[in-house]
Design goal:
With about 270 residues, the protein is of the alpha+beta class. The protein is about 20% helix and about 35% strand. Helix 1 (about 15-25) runs antiparallel to helix 2.
């Protein structure tokens, strides 16, 4: 199955070392070698890098890691194609505009016959490629568009309610791990994925909470470099599998987490 990674931070952060480790999932013995993508938020817009090539062999990725790519919100995906051609249009993350800001989405799993089972659930947002993941994104945004009637931010509670409801429908179709951001919040949903023993079971995602000082060399060495400007940095990382020896926490089946500026948002 595909590999997901996301980060939400209090201050702009460089994540190149974690990304390098993550990119290795796209080469070697891994089957997930059909493309990769990176979405760095910059305000309401996104710097998107993606290509339908193995991440572990990408010259682009080496170039990106040599640059200072600072962002408070990052989503990444490495693809193992199960549906649709190996092409740029089928490479994640996917982006769309809604409410005057860019929304980004990446999915890990398989949602067979989602068109038939959720027919008519998307009109405004149409897929560019042929993947079930992009159709799922179009359905999610169609549902959320009821809230984004202008440039004002909908409440977190309203957004969580819709995302939770749509995610529950996805779970009835197949494995539905996804990361989604509207530029304000990062939402991560864990379900099931193929485990080492071959079973399709939870956890589908893991999370890691960090509180770091600028000069924390341990943090830098393990994958996140904190740039000057913040004395104390709050981070939350999400990945399909733990990327370091730190205490990553598995999602329970169907768990949905909302994060802003590296801090988890608790629902009333």
């Amino acid at each position: 199955m595909c590999e997901l990674f996301a980060m939400s931070s209090e201050a702009p952060t460089n994540i190149n070392f974690s990304l390098n480790i993550f990119a290795q999932h796209g080469g070697g013995s891994s089957r997930a070698i059909d493309g990769w993508g990176l979405a760095f938020y910059d305000g309401n817009d996104v710097r998107l890098y993606k290509e339908p090539e193995p991440a572990g062999q990408s010259d682009w990725l080496s170039f990106i890691e040599q640059r200072t790519q600072l962002s408070e919100l990052v989503l990444s995906h490495i693809r193992h194609a199960t549906r649709g051609a190996i092409s740029l249009g089928n490479t994640q993350p996917f982006l769309r505009e809604l409410g005057g800001r860019v929304h980004a989405f990446a999915h890990n799993g398989n949602l067979p016959e989602i068109e038939q089972r959720m027919e008519g659930r998307w009109q405004r947002f149409q897929p560019i490629g042929q993947t079930d993941s992009e159709i799922a994104f179009c359905i999610l945004l169609q549902s959320l568009s009821l809230l984004w009637t202008d440039r004002r931010l909908p409440s977190v509670e309203d957004r969580m309610s819709i995302i939770s409801s749509v995610a529950a429908e996805f779970r009835e179709i197949g494995p539905a791990n996804f990361i989604y951001s509207d530029g304000d919040m990062l939402f991560a949903h864990g379900h099931r994925r193929i485990q080492h023993e071959g079973a399709i079971a939870p956890p589908g995602l893991f999370s890691l909470k960090r509180t770091c000082h600028i000069a924390d060399q341990t943090t830098s060495a393990s994958g996140v470099r904190i740039e000057a400007g913040a004395l104390l940095q709050e981070l939350m990382l999400f990945a399909s599998v733990p990327l370091t020896d730190e205490p990553w926490q598995p999602f329970f089946e169907g768990e949905l987490i909302a994060v802003r500026h590296g801090r988890r948002i608790s629902m009333p």
